[in-house]
Write the structure tokens for this entry.
Amino acid sequence: MTPKDGNGFVRCVYGHRHWGLNGAAGLLLTDPERGVLLQRRAWWVHHGRTWALPGGAVEAGETPREAATREAREEAAVPLDAVRTLSASLVDHGNWRYTTVLAAVTGPVGERVANAESAELRWVPPDEVAGFRLHSDFASAWPGLRSQLGRELVLIVDGANVVGSRPDGWWRDRLAAAARLRDKLAALSRQDTALTGVAGPEWSWWPRVRLVVEGQARGLDPVPGVEVIAAPADGDATIVATAQSALTARPDDHVLVVTADRELRTRVETLGAMTLGPATLLATLDALT
Ligand SMILES: [Zn+2]
């Protein structure tokens, strides 16, 4: 067992008493077939006997995503390799924060009550969640969480436009410049609190990244976390087609196209995609370690 250095109560700036010296985090796991995984807490824990999510205190040095997935493994035997984290919703009480990490099932979960903090686990259809005796904080968060349940952020990057937005010598080797951008984008799927602003300021996303390249950058290889799409001719047409197919395949997903090209922005916004300027994306990527 690891030492539980996050265990303890905090009095937040609003005067509430919360569990978790470094804040707390929980995993909201969705399975399209079965619903969401709820946990009934043991009678002796804080807010015992109520239903909520597997989760608990964040330990020192741990990210909320790591804490949520660790707690789900410890309490409910949910294996890390059977889930994909999609987004996170933050409740910020100043000196105490709770992060709900939304994830989708990607393989067999085999959940079971795995430690004494958990009394029962159940897959519950989203329509039935509000009928359970819920932990009061989870009950108030549920409508907002439900609005983003299972939804992903698809980030479509106009490679030539983003690379060309910063005069860093990219014209000397366009393939190498595209590779630098690709490698920075790969970090988005590894880091916590990546790319905020979609669905509201409390939400952050681990996007599916599609980097559209053209011309000399067309030989670019994909890396884990970044799909590379080589445009046969006109990059704009490929970006529009990529946005269209994402919106058709999964209409509930958020599709965000990164480009400064005004005509292209209008075209994809007409389809229902959102747009983001290269400077905003690059500032986000620069802030990643
Ligand atoms: Zn509070």
